[in-house]
Amino acid sequence: MASALQPTSRPPKAVTLTAFLAIASSMMLIPTFESILLGIRAEQGLSADHLSALSLLPIAGALVMTFVAAALTRRLGGRTVLSVAAVGLVIGALLCSVAPGLVVLLIGRVLTSMSATVTLVAGLSILQFHFTEPRARARVLPPAGQRAIPRG
Length: 152
What we know:
Blueprint: H1 13-35, H2 37-44, H3 48-76, H4 78-98, H5 102-130, H6 134-140, H7 142-148
Helix pairs in contact: 1-5, 3-4, 3-5, 4-5, 6-7
């Protein structure tokens, strides 16, 4: 269980690198997909309403998964949740790439978005778990970590 784990004074470089890559990949997915929407529209013959659904439903799924991911990460641990989310990302991307129509494309998009959100939350959780000292946390989590450093 996650509660039995103890943070180490110096986390393994592989753990830190994995968490950073997970966070970076999840943050790149939305802008990457948005840039190809017009091509998908032309190829699939979609209306503006369909494009709106392709853009907004994954965001709604991601919002829901933010809370679910936090609970799962606390219960199962960051590494386990990150591994499962990575599989979800791959399956969602495969569904998007072979989608014969709008329904499969939408399912792939929602799955990819939800998995990316879980990946982001789990990656941040891993970094916070291993970097407990405020100055170390500030180095790996600049926006949030900088506020944690006492001023004075």
